[in-house]
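Saturday, quiet lab. Running sequence design on the structure tokens for the scaffold JK sent over.
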């Protein structure tokens, strides 16, 4: 698509529209996640509106748990297609499932601590320490 007629923006305006810092844009450029437009002689680099969407994609993918390396792989869609996307997303989903299991365990431990406090079983610092370290199961054991 020829974007010669699209509005162009400076890095400061791009950062504002994407909700990031100028240094974030420069960092993404160094990492190869964003193209660095050529600087005209004696001028300022200008970015097309599609770069805002690319930054928003990067930020959203990070929120979903992808590392910047993985984001770079996702952005390389043209050479890898959905097969690679599916492998990355499946692996990330497995990590999310593991984290959810960890969070369920933490929730049970917090509920146990609250219950023991409410029942008056935690009356000293030592009681608190024993209650917290007495896990019903370790984080490395089978998760429910």
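Result came back. Writing it out in full:
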């Amino acid at each position: 698509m020829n974007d010669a007629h699209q509005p162009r923006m400076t890095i400061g305006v791009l950062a504002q529209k994407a909700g990031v810092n100028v240094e974030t844009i420069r960092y993404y450029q160094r990492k190869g996640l964003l193209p660095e437009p050529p600087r005209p002689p004696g001028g300022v680099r200008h970015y097309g509106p599609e770069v805002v969407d690319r930054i928003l994609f990067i930020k959203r993918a990070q929120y979903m748990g992808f590392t910047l390396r993985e984001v770079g792989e996702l952005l390389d869609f043209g050479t890898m297609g959905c097969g690679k996307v599916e492998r990355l997303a499946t692996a990330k989903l497995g990590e999310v499932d593991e984290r959810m299991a960890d969070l369920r365990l933490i929730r049970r431990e917090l509920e146990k601590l609250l219950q023991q406090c409410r029942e008056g079983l935690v009356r000293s610092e030592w009681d608190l320490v024993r209650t917290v370290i007495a896990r019903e199961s370790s984080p490395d054991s089978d998760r429910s």
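Notes for JK: DSSP finds six helices and no strands in the chain. The longest helix spans residues 77-118. Ask whether to fix the surface positions before the next round.
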